[in-house]
UniProtKB/TrEMBL annotation:
<protein>
    <submittedName>
        <fullName>Universal stress protein</fullName>
    </submittedName>
</protein>
<dbReference type="InterPro" id="IPR006016">
    <property type="entry name" value="UspA"/>
</dbReference>
<feature type="domain" description="UspA">
    <location>
        <begin position="4"/>
        <end position="137"/>
    </location>
</feature>
<dbReference type="Pfam" id="PF00582">
    <property type="entry name" value="Usp"/>
</dbReference>
<comment type="similarity">
    <text>Belongs to the universal stress protein A family.</text>
</comment>
<feature type="domain" description="UspA">
    <location>
        <begin position="151"/>
        <end position="284"/>
    </location>
</feature>
């Protein structure tokens, strides 16, 4: 069985999006879904301790979790938990460690366009501190049934270090979910502006062949369905021109600026988020020597 999936839940549309996507991933990979609501760990000086108020908040949180559980019915094995932390993100990271989770799923910030991403405070904090992959659920993900599963996994790989970790994570998700793996070459996006067209074409072809060869060498001959190259005036234009399946999952690596085994959303991934119509998983760029994140 794959590692559990932790969902950062709130009783909002964003929380429903995260829950639905988490259920999809758990069903597709045969994982247990752990639904987590994080409450403040300490009351502020302005708000004095009040046992009655704290009890009310805790009871309300359990009620919201029970309703979330009801929406899942028997589609996926799941648990529901109330945890405490100085921040929602800190509580989710602690919960992921507690459950040995393979990923944390959160929803978009309020005000995002349907099918698009808009990072909120929690997602932004996770992007700078999580040591496990973070899954960003776009607005409207709640409308996709858990039975859709994962139709395809696309890993966006550039020319900078860290692609091997991303490739391994993408292959693991593809294998666990039974989905085909597609590699998206970002070689031409990494080139400086004004480069000759011939250089762009040569770089594109060379990098695509290199990525495919490395993938097949480490993952097996039939593990990768295809390699496509991002082509466009910029990364947003390139991503917009690529075909995306309704049940697709996109995966990107953390920025090279990230601390070891931590996330940091790079500029390319951040730009992709503006136009990406499917969920995105951001993967920490390094692992421990024993292979753990």
């Amino acid at each position: 069985m794959a590692a559990p999936v932790v969902v950062g839940y709130t009783a909002t549309d964003a929380g429903a999006d995260a829950l639905a996507l988490g259920a999809r991933l758990a069903v597709a990979t045969g994982s247990v879904l752990e639904i987590v609501m994080v409450l403040p760990g300490e009351r502020s000086v302005i708000t004095p301790p009040d046992a009655g108020y704290d009890r009310l908040v805790r009871e309300r949180a359990h009620q919201w979790l029970a309703r979330a559980s009801e929406t899942l019915k028997e589609t996926v094995a799941h648990g529901r938990h109330v945890r405490y932390g100085e921040s929602f993100a800190e509580g989710l990271i602690a919960a992921a460690a507690e459950f040995g989770a393979g990923m944390i799923v959160v929803g978009a910030a309020n005000g995002g366009l349907r099918g698009r991403h808009r990072l909120g405070t929690v997602a932004n904090e996770l992007m700078h501190s999580s040591d496990v992959p973070v899954v960003l659920a776009p607005e409207g993900a709640r409308e996709v049934a858990a039975s859709v599963g994962v139709e395809r996994v696309t890993a966006a790989i550039g020319t900078r270090p860290g692609g091997d970790v991303l490739l391994a994570e993408a292959a693991g998700l593809a294998t666990a979910s039974g989905a085909p793996l597609r590699l998206l070459s970002l070689a031409t996006v990494d080139l400086p502006a004004g480069v000759d067209t011939g250089v762009i074409r040569l770089t594109e072809a060379t990098h695509a062949e290199k990525v495919l060869a490395q993938a097949r060498a480490s993952l097996g001959e039939g593990s990768v369905a295809e390699v496509v190259s991002a082509q466009g005036a910029d990364i947003e234009d390139a991503v917009s021109q690529i075909e995306w399946l309704p049940g697709e999952i996109a995966m990107v690596g953390s920025s090279r600026l990230a601390q070891p085994r931590r996330l940091f959303l790079g500029s390319t991934a951040a730009k992709m988020l503006h136009v990406l119509p499917v969920p995105m998983i951001v993967v920490p760029r390094t692992r421990n020597a024993d292979g753990a994140r």
